[in-house]
């Protein structure tokens, strides 16, 4: 297989006859990035690649050798009969081994762990998956993680969230460990994540407030950015695509082909103790819906300064400025790609900037310190009748100590503080403060058993309102029956303090009035899961889990009709819910064929009303199959979500969204082709994506048709 | 080869379904219809009889409110032995969309005007589970449910929701 997948290219031939020859070259990954630390073996001699991916072995006799390149997380490159007849320079491309379950490292638990050692279900999405499918925003990528669903921009893990109109999140999303929800609405801004700079995305599928505090009630998504190397590398990433005609002729509203495109230019380099990555991105989308256009400029910088062997400083700066039209709901089902007349022509300009300083220090052989200081600025204004605007600033600091008490026993403690200041006509002039103290321990009871425990105390206060506190414990265990069979158990608790937006919003948009609710209190939950992971053969991995999550005082929108002629919406603690279910994932890697499936069953019930929770599909299925031949790859992805039983009926009943009750199951196919020319020393990768192959029309949120069929070409050029 | 043909057939079938479509292209207006049958002797003093549908369960007298009430049929003539209803026909209140409804019943009142006071009403027929408790009913998007029939036996009235005449 390796002979097919990987090609060894001899770029320099015989120079002159001599007895001793050298063997050197460079190892890169599928994206053309240098791979340091690769073990290079030629016969009995070996070396490891440097930070620039280079290696050199000298004094070798001419002859036939077994050559092997290996590193954890990548497929080995082996040539059993390599003829070394002269000084030889090779370029080696190594392919990421997405299948190697026990080799995948995750850091969403605030320290690095093997995925196979976790007590809770988790998933990892690699950068090759993200780049191959040319996901423009992170939420687009998360739709392809088993057990995860999106309702427009609202992320839900195992049914944790419905749709809250951009206020609050029940999944904590972090960038290199820095939480990324805004100070005003407490929402995740997906456009702020630098997609071309992402190394991997980790998803933890259980309550994690014991480490992260508020918002980690339904799980954690940690986005890890790429580490810059020491050798200079420049890249250009560009894509262009278009939306097809709607499958229903009567929905056509424009004669123009609706295009979208983007360009990222980046550079990374290093010298001595300093390494950096910089990139600038411009994206534009005319959209398949009227008035839904967007144009964005984004910048990203990551600078790492290795002060000495014990101390490291990382500076992260990331932000964008964006102008876009707004599309809240369709006009009606006959005009599904057009907004109501009164909403047309509205704009929503916004700016978001994150600045983070991460300091790592090894205080002693056993104790290390990590401090994450961040500042997140958010500004937006809309064109609704209320001319809403908001300017928020959030400062956050997380000081964490890791103590390796003994071999197999890690103790973590930390204190996290955050302060948000909001100046908005929609949320008022308000502020919120939070302080959390946490303790966590992983203890290897014996070679087969890892026990995890932890607790966090949080204190939260919103301006003018009484303080709230929460204690969030957790307990977990991972037990390995054998090398290829392990079981896990997890009990965790979570809570979420109401955001400034949920508490203080006062506005009218698209005819819908929202009023503040000063009596809003925190929502909380406990979650339990047990799972099993089994690799019956070295190319098959199976994972199954059952879970039960109980939620109390969930904050949802409620229509208040005390005044029948002027009904309004408030955020309220209205729901006690239970979500039970199971999920099953499987990965098969037969030679050049890769097959991945994930199925989740959810029974999400509102206990008080004994009915289904809003926007929770009962069945989620994701399946993907790909085939690799030489430098070419092709694949099909399939996503299915059963039709949700309940939506915001009030919006339909009171005429805010015409035909809002119309919905179907979600069922989409994507087709993609990819060619990586790196192994032919051409610094280029090309991808073609056809999203929504059959042009199937569906809504995630009422009155919002999801993207119709669109086709794009993506080119990555490395220099 | 056979497996490939099956796979291709599945693909073709899937590709024919384009999901949501404008009205008039296969979508039915969602709704419910059925027949109400009456047995026993009609009680005296009843001035109006209606089929009513509530969105959420009637767990307390407060749940008997205008917001929760989604459908009120035209009056069923006094003394009827059978009555056909359809939520898509003319009615006093018609607000049936796709979704789950917790309470479907036939109720009688002795008031001349249509009252929203729970204590003015007596339930005489109920869409119920086998144990007699109220059963919810789900109207799928684009689907009109038929044969949602209710038998009203005046000799064995169903379970009453809280806040009735005798409470």
Question: Can you characterise this structure?
Answer:
The complex is a heterodimer of chains A (719) and B (167). Chain A is mostly beta strands. Chain A folds into two domains: 2-94, Immunoglobulin-like, CATH 2.60.40.10; 101-385 and 401-468 and 484-718, TonB-dependent receptor, beta-barrel domain (Maltoporin, Chain A, Beta Barrel), CATH 2.40.170.20. Chain A is built from six helices and 44 strands. In chain A, strand 42 (699-701) and strand 43 (704-705) form a beta hairpin. The radius of gyration of chain A is 26 Å and the shape is globular. Chain B has a single domain, classed as Immunoglobulin-like, CATH 2.60.40. Chain B has one helix and eleven strands. In chain B, 9% of the residues lie in helices and 31% in strands. Chain B has 167 residues and is mainly beta. In chain B, the strands form three sheets. Chain B has a five-stranded antiparallel sheet with strand order 5-3-2-7-8, with no helix packed on it. In chain B, strands 1, 4, 10 and 11 form a four-stranded mixed sheet that branches. Chain B has one helix at 2-16, and strands at residues 31-39, 48-54, 69-72, 82-86, 93-94, 99-101, 103-109, 121-126, 137-139, 144-145, 150-153. The mean pLDDT of chain B is 83. The chains are: A mainly beta (719), B mainly beta (167).
